[in-house]
Amino acid sequence: MAMLPGVARSLGVSVPVAGHVISAYAVGVVIGAPLATLIGARLSRYRLLLALQAMFVVGNAASALSPGYGTLLVIRFLTGLPHGAFYGVAALVAAGMADPARRGRAVAGVFVGLTVAHVVGVPLVTWAGQMLGWRVVYAFIAAMELLALVMIARTVPAMMPDPQGSLLRELGALRRPQVWFTLATGAVGFGGMFCVGTYLSTVLLGVTGVPAYVVPLAQSLWGVGMVAGNMAGARLVDISPALAVVVTLVASTVMLCLFSVCAGNMVLVLIVTSLMGGIIALLPALQTRLMDVAADAQGLVAALNHSAVNVANASGAWLGGAVIAAGYGAQDVGWAGAGLSAMGLVIFLTGLLAQRGERHASDPV
Fold first, then answer.
1. What is the greatest pairwise CA distance in the chain?
2. Domain for residue 62, yes or no?
3. Structural domain total, the chain
4. How far apart are CA 67 and CA 273, in angstroms?
5. Residue environment code for 166-204, b if the CB has 16+ CB neighbours within 10 A, otherwise e
6. How far separated are the first and last CA of the chain, in Å rounded?
7. In this structure, are residues 260 and 297 in contact, taking their beta carbons and an 8 Å threshold?
8. Which of 224, 232, 196 has its CA nearest to residue 341?
9. Over the stretch 293-312, which tens digit does the pLDDT of each residue have?
10. 0.90 cut: is pTM over it?
């Protein structure tokens, strides 16, 4: 996203058309998460991680060498394919290596990179893209991915494949209602964060009236909130994943409402922006909840969690744009985002009630 204007200029297309490159990656994530997991159902998680990471290396290196817009569009779609499966499998590996009492913190540790990226990576890539060009940035990313591939090969235990692992067993998780309730919670509830995040600069520049140099500061504050929220949420997950989901969605709804209320004041909106970063705690909470409800078919649902997040990304950004296009103020994306968080909370609470009913129905008379 930070390199979008440079990509558009270099390839001779408009910024909205260049934005389709981002959408192509997101579509790749949604499709690739279940597909890659099912194809790799008989592989050990160690080998699957290596294969998925190798796809990242090739995809980002090819992006740097892409000759034109159409080629880049296809390459970014292909590079998105391993994304969801990689994070899903990595979360399962981390949870399996940790003490059960620290499972939430292990899963949250996998997502540290996502949170730190918003503190350091976004400003760095913005600068590097402006100074060196987007192709150099993609080449650098490919080099970092290659380093990560070596580190995975050297440090992750070489686990044996599950002899019972199969395509049918993984698909069997989709017969469990709680899996669908949890995925729907992420697909809807997470949309609130993206509804506001997509139009954060628009609100800051057009409503709050901050100087342009404050926007990267706000992005970094958002990232700091993500790091803190990820760490705090991990401890809550170790107490109860369901409780962590409920608390995060309640806090998300409140923070997104406050964003709209405080949008006219620079100090207040920056404080609220940093607090909104804590919504990221929903990711490890949902990931761990899925581990609890998927029984012995965890690979597919762990990957589908990231498909759900990308659905939330697309729908949240669309809803925010629709609010602005309808003539409402840009700050009103906060109210729309709060509505999505509240709907996610309702879905999750409905799932908990349904689960309680299932337990009562199975109790001996």
1. 72
2. yes
3. 1
4. 38
5. eeebbeebeebebbbbbbbbbbbbbbbbbbbbbbbbbbb
6. 58
7. no
8. 196
9. 877 667 778 778 888 888 88
10. no
Q: Is the pLDDT of residue 55 over 80?
A: yes
Q: Per the domain annotation, does 119 fall within a domain? A: yes
Q: Give the position of tokens 């997470």.
A: 190
Q: Of 32, 138, 139, whose CA–CA distance to 86 is shortest?
A: 32
CATH code for the domain of 85:
1.20.1250.20
Residue 236 lies in a domain: yes
Burial environment of residue 325 by CB neighbours within 10 A (0 to 12, 13 to 18, 19 or more): exposed
Q: Which domain holds residue 211?
A: 4-360
pLDDT at 165: 55
What are 253's two structure tokens? Answer: 């709804």
